[in-house]
Amino acid sequence: MKIGAQDAGTFLARLTRLDPGAVVRLKGGGEHVTLWAKLPWSVLVSRTVEGAGPEDATVSAADLLAELGRGGETLPGRRDQQWRWPLPPSGARVVETVPAAEVYRIAAAAAGTLRAASTEGVGGRAVGQRALRDALLDHVAILVTDGESRVEVPQRLIQAVVRMGFLGRLAPTATEVVPVQVGEVRVQAIGRWVGLAAPYGMAWLLPVSQFAVRPAAAHTNG
Question: What domains appear along the chain, each with residue ranges and CATH number?
């Protein structure tokens, strides 16, 4: 195994901060390896890096991060049985593009709403932190109608690309914090999957009714 330690390390460091026990699925081919992981709020994230890796293997994200950190090239112990989620199929269509700065603004506004509701309540009534978080994550942040279908982008996806650092480095301005790099985020869809393709990674969501956890003897879902 020999993969881009800096790019993969950035992905793994962000992932393990959000979920110390996360597993990461590596799918290699040619001169690139794609790292896949599931965030605690049921969003799949991925980043493709240069290098040669296993054709398809799941390992501990923390173990892989440690291996890369010491300059090693040994694949950590496999945990294929712990990967239980389908991957989106190829061939997604782009239905809209959104400036990266706007995506960050939406995420920041949601964080502000959560802080205010946690402190002041909703309509003068106290609401549990988890209930607030779940309601906020399910809120449709971007709605796209392209003549063929209606595509809803919930806050879950917005938070995924921001908190995984997929928008790139951030810098403060006089009034806000925005991505340093000028770029766009593509809203994509295929079947019931909805995704955001950001400059440094992708996030995908499948409706909860289809995102079932299931035991798997082997990788058969994508």
Answer: 2-82 (3.10.150.10), 93-205 (no CATH)
